[in-house]
Amino acid sequence: MAEAHQAVGFRPSLTSDVAEADLSASALQEIYLSGLRSWKRHLSRFWNDFLTGVFPASPLSWLFLFSAIQLAWFLQLDPSLGLTEKIKELLPDWGGQHHRLRGVLAAALFASCLWGALIFTLHVALRLLLSYHGWLLEPHGAMSSPTKTWLALVRIFSGRHPMLFSYQRSLPRQPVPSVQDTVRKYLESVRPVLSDEDFDWTAGLAQEFLRLQASLLQWYLQLKSWWASNYVSDWWEEFVYLRSRNSLMVNSNYYMMDFLYVTPTPVQAARAGNAVHALLLYRHRLNRQEILPTLLMGMRPLCSAQYEKIFNTTRVPGAQKDHLRHLRDSRHVAVFHRGRFFRVGTHSPSGLLSPRALEQQFQRILDDPSPACPHEEHLAALTAAPRDLWAQARRSLKSRAGEALEAVEGAAFFVSLDSEPAGLTREDPAASLDAYAHALLAGRGHDRWYDKSFTLIVFSNGKLGLSVEHSWADCPVSGHMWEFTLATECFQLGYSVDGHCKGHPEPSLPRPQRLHWDLPDKVHLSIALALRAAKTLSGDTDCHVFPFSHFGKSFIRRCHLSSDSFIQTALQLAHFRDRGRFCLTYESAMTRLFLEGRTETVRSCTREACNFVRAMEDREKTDSQCLSLFRLAVDKHQALLKAAMSGQGVDRHLFALHIVSQLLHLQAPFLDQVHSEQWQLATSQIPVQQTHLFDVHNYPDYVSSGGGFGPVDDHGYGVSYIFMGDDTVTFHISSKKSSTKTDSHRLGQHIEDALLDVASLFQEGQRLKRGCRGRGEEDAGNRRGSLPGH
CA–CA separation, 649 vs 133, rounded Å? Predict the structure, then answer.
């Protein structure tokens, strides 16, 4: 979600990591280390790899095969065609009485070899099947005979009852696209936003790059794609996230919201108790790999690697780059309330604490009258500071308050018990939603520990929220966890009539441990500087959230169009009306069809979208002409999205080429130009992945309202959206107040108008537009053809 900001801001700083003498060796060394990291990850989870590595077979299948071979020997048959006898000859001779044992061992070795060969064959066959992406390229709603055959074969080779990581060994590696195709697609993507002169200059740089540097850089990427698990993802994590020196707050972290219209209980401690218990239930299922892998079309598995670091993970600041510290287990959470830090145990000798026991512990913290120590209240502002400042302060902090710091960084996750209410209010719904989003994205600058993989935020009225650190995973993974949490704490755990967690308290539990910080004097100044910068950034962030309820996914589906492409094309119209010009647009698409894939960029501002926007602003164009151009724009966006998902996008390939050029200290003006671009419109759709957990027909209010992220550019917008049920789309918009060119509320109005205008091109949409609440028919009809006032 917030990755576009990091992608723009990254500047490879490699001089400290590579030797000047042999630049080629430096690049090869970096590629070697990438592969080494991949193998280390596999070795660290050897046992899970064994259990999932034999999938779609099972360990019991070896026993069945061994028993079958023994039965064949009993019937004087030799299914090994003499191989078992040869294996027996190679075994040591232990004497006559052990002759039968040698036969059993030889049969076991033959069974193991045959079993391994069969598993390897299944893996290769499944990997070849999963490398097919023809199903992505088919028209919306259609399925060809080859795709039906492919689905049947995938079903045969996929096995039954997969675990979370069962498909990891069978996933194909992300392909390295043709550099000529990538450059061609890039030039096509920037043509709508560049003048003729600028485009000719850029095209000249591109041709020079293809002639002089491209083949060498591409060779290194091909080498890495063969050696490492993924040719780009580890560099993306390191250079875009971990080497960034910017503040995590607003710039990198993103947020997730609670139910929009309901709050299951107003009791803060109770909501915290159920939510923490639900999150730890999710962790328990994750550790046992009981979470089902995500399947597209019910058959095509996505990579599950990002799930490994959801819990027990902290981003630790460093002088030049951060690193992710992940613990195998943690049996406590760190809690912040009114400037004080606490350690709350989550387990007793008998297992996970009940929701009611956790509520009791959180209530004890809320009732604790002790004040915060000097400077302790604002300590967490250091995690919102530029990373260099925080790294320096952390070294001093660790030497004097190492135990308290370890309790926070070693926690399963961070919990913030806020003293203020949040969420939708009837008195001022628009302002209350905006304030809710702002509290989740930025807070007060000192009440979130932004380094933790995520912070659970519980407001005083029982409203929930999530602040997520971005480097360890992307939004769909944290969103999957959040959907489970909301559904479990509300529908399965539930609350008593008086709003408390069900069950009984446990008075014998020790009280939460108050953490004490011995803060060195030089840290005091760092805290003051960090707090000032955090408050400035927070005050400059403008958030706007609005549910668009005139139509949603069901209407778009009846138009036989892709929901995401519909919204993206309408966003181009809205942004043009807001700014009066086109700009590069960033939409995040997942590449988890491949092993350790993360994201790719869809460049949504296409020539087709621009033609549609111009037609909508031209009063001489008829609705049928605009509709034809709209369909062309939607089809183009769909083609770009499918290309990105199938590893044929533009930006990750250019990014990886840029990294190799930096490793080789090779000047590539074209790549420098590409990575100096500004994304003034960054967008992302938040997927709803577990619809079976929510009954949107009987309980339409119990649906997650998505989340958002900060603006990518100081004069740009960050826009995310989620389809809530069939008839609502909730938008989250952010921008900078200091910019005279942006206004989140103004863009929100343009988005609403653009969606209605696009819908009016369809016959059913005309009725929707006429029936809009609070809008006159004349006003709605005059909206087309009007440019924004600046």
Answer: 14
- Nearest-angstrom CA–CA distance, 676 and 657: 15
Could you give the strand order of the β-sheet that contains 585-590, starting from the edge strand earlier in sequence?
Answer: 541-548, 728-736, 717-724, 681-685, 585-590, 599-603
**Digit-coded pLDDT (tens) for 113-158:** 887 788 888 888 888 989 988 888 777 667 788 888 888 888 888 7
Tokens at residue 439, please?
């509290």
DSSP per residue over 721-738, as a string?
EEEETTTEEEEEEEEETT
The CATH label, of 3.30.559.70, 1.10.10.10, 3.10.20.740, 2.60.40.10, for the domain at 258-541 is: 3.30.559.70
Active site residue 161: no
| Domain chopping of the chain, boundaries | 45-158, 182-227+650-676, 258-541, 549-646+678-770
- For residues 239-269, one letter each, b for 16 or more C-beta atoms within 10 angstroms of the residue's C-beta and e for the rest, the string is bbbbbbbebbbbbbbbbbbbbbeebbbebbb
With tokens 């006559």, the residue in question is: 96
Is 650 within 8 Å of 602 (Cβ atoms)?
no
- Alpha carbon distance 636, 611 (integer Å): 12
The CATH architecture assigned to 549-646+678-770 reads 2-Layer Sandwich (3.30)
Bridge pairing between strands 454-458 and 414-417: parallel
Catalytic residue among 378, 470, 544, 750: 470
Model pLDDT for residues 99-114, shown as the tens digit of each residue: 667 777 877 887 788 8
Rounded Cα distance between 356 and 273, Å, is 7
Please state the rounded mean pLDDT for residues 686-704: 83
Task: Identify the three-state secondary structure at position 33.
Answer: helix
Minimal CA–CA distance to 605: which of 571, 652, 649? 571
Cα angle 720-722-727, degrees, rounded to a multiple of 5:
135
Q: Do 258-541 and 549-646+678-770 have matching folds?
A: yes
The CA radius of gyration of the chain, in Å to the nearest whole number, is 28
